[in-house]
Fold each of these.
Amino acid sequence: MLTHVSITNFSQNKKRIQRIMKKIIFATGNQDKMREIREIMADMDMEICSMKEAGISLDIEENGTTFEENAQIKAKAVAACTKDIVLADDSGLEVDYLNKEPGVYSARYLGEDTSYDIKNQAILDRLKGVPKEQRTARFVCAIAAVLPDGKTLVTRETIEGYIGECPAGENGFGYDPIFYVDEYHCSTAELTEEQKNEISHRGKALRSMKKLLHEYGF
Ligand code: IMP
């Protein structure tokens, strides 16, 4: 009987805590990103929801000219539908020799529906004969947060590397097979998920945002 009372109290308390616990809504439909943010923010005592889990469905046009702008456009659009904290990210690949292309157009480069085999080969072709020291590139990630009082916070982080001579690796996604990091002497498609999250633009930008949210009392 005593056990029953304890369990009842525990479950009542849990419900009360859940009611006062702040929620973070991450403006993405991408399950990999959701897993990464849940892992990184796990110790924040915040409920982390995707847009879908929060019951928000929006088609947002990313028409900014920088990663920071696009992340804020997404976060603000979702924040207009909720009083919870909203986070959104925007990321992409900058190749120095190509004047930082594809940049904010990374997903749309050569058309949204074009396969990454084709996109990656096109970049390799444009860099044919270019020596390693001029093949520098980076993945960039900006994270924007809109707080319940409307204040906007933004973090931006990169992972520096270079475009290899040919694609390698089966892990990751997008431009990973042609993006090489000196630290591991391989492409980011050859790293495990844990290795990549530790050094990636998104992992670093999420951890910076977590620090910033802490400074704002969350
Ligand atoms: P978004 O931030 O989800 O809009 O992603 C933009 C695009 O940037 C992706 O579709 C990929 O083409 C590219 N991208 C961003 N991060 C990565 C990464 O970690 N690996 C490979 N490609 C990436």
Amino acid sequence: MKCSKCGKKAVIYQKYSGLYLCKEHFLDDVERKVRAEMRRFRMIERNDCIAVALSGGKDSSTLLFLLKKILGHREDLEFVAISINEGIKGYREKMLENARKFASSLNVPHFVFSFKEEFGFSTDDFANAGFEQAPCSFCGVLRRKLLERKARELGATKIAIAHNLDDEAQTVLLNYLKGDFERLLRLNSRREEFIPRIKPLRSVPEKEVALFAILKNIPFSVSECPYLRKSLRFSVKKLLNEIERQHAGIKYSLVRGYERLVELLPKPAFELQRCEICGEPSASKICKACEMLLRLQKLTKNNKSKREFNKGSFRRFDA
Ligand code: SF4
Ligand code: ZN
């Protein structure tokens, strides 16, 4: 098939837009979408220090590449890359190595922090502790917390997350399905207690991020986390892909519809307090991360784990 814009050989057919695009016009289209979202949400401000959450997968490597391409000439901006090692045996190590090499090829300082060192527990520990919840619920909450803490320590003013259109649509539907409307309303809101999180890839479909990475020779790891398929998010992902196949554009309409809903509703008035354990901003007396760590500590009778636990975030409170 031929590119709808120039007649050259097409590399993709975008069913939702009805366009065939050649390599050049496809790469332009992705970059245009990223620039448009950055402008729409005023993601970048003067003198920002942008901490990019870099996992070594296709999305975050593409994000770092595009941020450097679009903003790399700006002398007022700084970039750092942060990788989190959740402690998932046989999965994360290779990705971290990718992340390290890629950040270094773009001259971006790279930092790695691990759950085990910071909290005393890994995602594997949680998965083996006998909880009913899927490991993702623990892993996601702690990753967010560690990223925020380390970005703050490094002096970052923005945290860039590589959520693509599929991730955004999944998050919206997930929160609907869980009936978590407070969270839904908070998704795009900013609180000064937290470093603003920006998502420049939020309107690029996941498949297009992958194609972009391949066409630009961005190295990325394709391994899948062994816990992914246990999560509700994975079921939602499958469901959305199935609907999208029959009704192209449904992911866009879900995310755009959510944005309109948020505009119509009053801003959520939730009071933030300090977590009694770690001292960080929290919606309740004990933040979700500390609550999970406490549950895990109770379940883990092993003395070694307890010793390690005391070395982590709890020591900050005791000190
Ligand atoms: Fe963590 Fe779940 Fe992601 Fe695996 S799939 S890294 S357990 S959040
Ligand atoms: Zn806490």
Amino acid sequence: MTQLAWTMLPMSNCLFCKIIKGELPSKKVYEDEKVYAFHDINPGAPTHILIVPKRHVSGVNTASHEDAEIIGYSHLIAAKLAKERGIDDSGYRTVYNVGPDAGQSVFHLHLHLIGGRRMSWPPG
Ligand code: 5GP
Ligand code: ZN
């Protein structure tokens, strides 16, 4: 039997692990062997998609070198989804919120893809 490292296992009390496993509903926009992407339940823009690694990682603060690939890969998926929605030329934002000052509320790594309207900088 293949031995899985504990970090490979879904966290039973994690909201996004439950969504990935289909235990909670979501509006899926994309899935492959590495990531699951779905519409944010409380969108901040016409396009607001969360791109979530299937492997549980709590956030950028706890990411390891093992997670470097998924962090980069998630951006490539964001670019693909933005192109499919026709917002690649008008522009969009990709965001990892980290910790309380940034308002991180779900502790399973997720990249926000936000676009479809003009955004201000710096963010509020
Ligand atoms: P964070 O604040 O951690 O960067 O982002 C968490 C995001 O997850 C928020 O934008 C929030 O609206 C979204 N979210 C929280 N719970 C759910 C849920 O049950 N379903 C979906 N689709 N999005 C959720
Ligand atoms: Zn999780």
Amino acid sequence: MKNLLKNFLIFFVVFILIASLFSLYGNGKSKPEKIGLETFIKQINNEEVSQIVVRGNKLEITLKDGKQEVVKKEGGQTLIEMLTDLGVNQDKITNINIEVKEDEGVSFWLGILLPFLLPFILVGTFIYFMIKSVQGANTRAMMFGKSQAKEFRGDTKNKVTFKDVAGAKEAKEELKEVVEFLKNPKKFTNLGARIPKGVLLLGSPGTGKTLLARAVAGEADVPFFHISGSEFVEMFVGVGASRVRDLFKKAKKNAPSIIFIDEIDAVGRRRGAGLGGSHDEREQTLNQILVEMDGFDPHTNVIVMAATNRPDVLDPALLRPGRFDRQVVLENPDIKDREEILKVHARQKPLAKDVSLRRIAERTPGFSGADLANVLNEGALLAARKNKKLIEMEDLFEAIEKVMLGPERKSRIITPKEKKITAYHEAGHAIVAHFLPHTDPVQKVSIIARGQAGGYTLKVPTEDRRLHSKTEFIEEISVLLGGYLAEKEVFNEVTTGATSDLRRATNLARRLVTDYGMSDKLGPRTFGEKEEIIFLGREIHEQRDYSEKVAELIDEEVSNFINISKEKALQILKNKRKVLEEVVKSLLEKETLEKEDFEKIVGSKPKNKDEQKSEKDKKEN
Ligand code: ADP
Ligand code: MG
Ligand code: ZN
């Protein structure tokens, strides 16, 4: 409709232009006088005429004194014939300069007809465009079954290559091989190797799956068809399957080529698991993908790549050999990779001399590649806001917290009483975290609201670790309860501020029992089969695979863990009450305590046995 309006407007403007041109043309020359034949003959006989231009039946006369006149003559007669008939002397005629010109008919008729025709032309054009746009919609409807896959070739302007992907070494190796397959298939087939058909990229959001796939496209220099899983799923049944067919047809025609299906879990969910209306459609689409992949003969040089962050919900059939038999796992980067990723994204950003990307990497365990890119971007924005020319370390530290916890909400008004409660709450977390032996050191305590939280205590692990012990979990729960317990100790009352702490503590305690087998009473087994049921959006449904009696036991054990943690935290809060008060005082004054300020009050973090031992070992060696 927008287009239609645009076309109409253009037409309208052109019309106005033409119309004004015509009127200019008309006014520009003074109109020649119309005269009768008699006057004309008289003028010839008086030798007043210097020139006659014949245009069809119109005679344009120029008199010797420059005056212009127009005379109509009868059709079917030449000028000379007419003049002789009217008895004009031959000598008088020869003295006149006579010119015969093309009939001015076109512009003449146009001049007459245009005023009448214009409305018709206008309406006609309008209807024409109308019909055309309707037809367009129709053909678009017919195109539904066509895949909307975007093809991009290596030579696009913002081409991504493996250089733009930091870290992820194994994944890159694996994919380099895929690129090799496409460039040089003989090398592999000569040795009898079967070229993989499908490569599945697995990893949590932001780990760089899409980025890596685009890098493959950039490196491989072959047509690369990119489509997102959700694009298969439309309102109309059967569209998905036909899109898949079309996509594969295109890819085969352009072989060697790569198909990339992003977010494949949108269609590749375990079949038969859904209750939602569209799952039939999804199944058909998935089936079609499987059929197409099986249909490749080994010499078709097409590789299918797919990405998902939910491998657990994928249909097992997708993972069978001969389909997505290569699986590349992307994980959140470790400290070295984090530094590399930061370097990649710092390329076009002016950093101040004091910036150490290594220190940023240290402070960002658990961040994904996307988070890190975001940190640098937020840092740049913060620096710009302060009118700086360079991005400084403080901007980046601030950015880390912003990415982690949401923006600061300094303007939120809280009463002095609320402020005091928040201070005790956060100091409670911080003190418990500080004095327990297996927790991460406190990096920052603040009572400035951020995102959802009224205040926050930031702990940062000293190293990347994958395994966590029961002791660590118990202490973690103690820290979570620290805020709640401090409030209770001091005010003999608790507030709603602890809700999310309590929920997290409870969830963690529950996982200890049901997932990690850390309860002695219940033993080394897991409880509950997690299954996803898609119904009205997403919902994780837990199926109970244990009896009512065991359920009671689980509840007991969860409470037990929480109690143990609570006692630990309470003990610290009671023993260190004085220090707590000092931290609170300082918090109320400064609102934010950095690690150094905090440790000035509470002393440095006591070392646990493992740390003491490893230090002793170091000294002995
Ligand atoms: P996913 O598809 O896994 O959810 P993306 O590939 O979309 O994640 O990554 C989002 C952004 O994060 C990328 O555009 C890139 O800026 C950044 N990023 C993620 N991983 C890396 C990496 N290894 N190296 C450089 N940048 C990365
Ligand atoms: Mg992605
Ligand atoms: Zn809290």
